[in-house]
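[Automated response] Your request has been received and processed.

Submitted sequence:
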Amino acid sequence: MKGTPVLMSAKTIVAASLLAAGTLAAAAPAQAATETPQSVCGNGFRVVKDGVRTIKDRQGRQLGKVFLLYNRRTGYNCVVTFRTLFDVAYAKVRMGATLTVQTTTPPLTSSKTTSGVYSRHTKPTKLFARGLCVKYSGTIQSPDSAWVGKGGRDEWGNCGR
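Generated structure:
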């Protein structure tokens, strides 16, 4: 009988350890899942009208979305790409976010791209665009590098009028 309480305590400790490990393992993806385009771009940024476009592969599967945001206070636009496919174990894939601003001086456009290998979303791409028209796009490459999905808006819009 003296050994039984120790055995039960060991089972309790093992069960508690497994439960805690499972809770901690689940917390990281849950935290990543709470990230939003607004939280990635920063304080004051809001998704604009016509500011969400789907990124699809050649078969029409949705890989993710690209978001266009604007900050009224600073006059900056921000573009960020989030993926929805291939989130298994948060494996990393190559992604990009591009923002192009129609300027009033030559060369008449200014463009910036952020690209790299990310697990959930790109880093934000920001350019000043108060009163100027913009285009935006996002790309997501398949894990086997066989193809790239693209989405965005190829026409000028959100001109600050």
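Summary generated for your ticket: Strands lie at 45-56, 62-71, 76-83, 93-102, 109-118, 125-128, 134-141, 148-157. The first helix runs from residue 3 to 33.
If you did not submit this request, please reply to this message.
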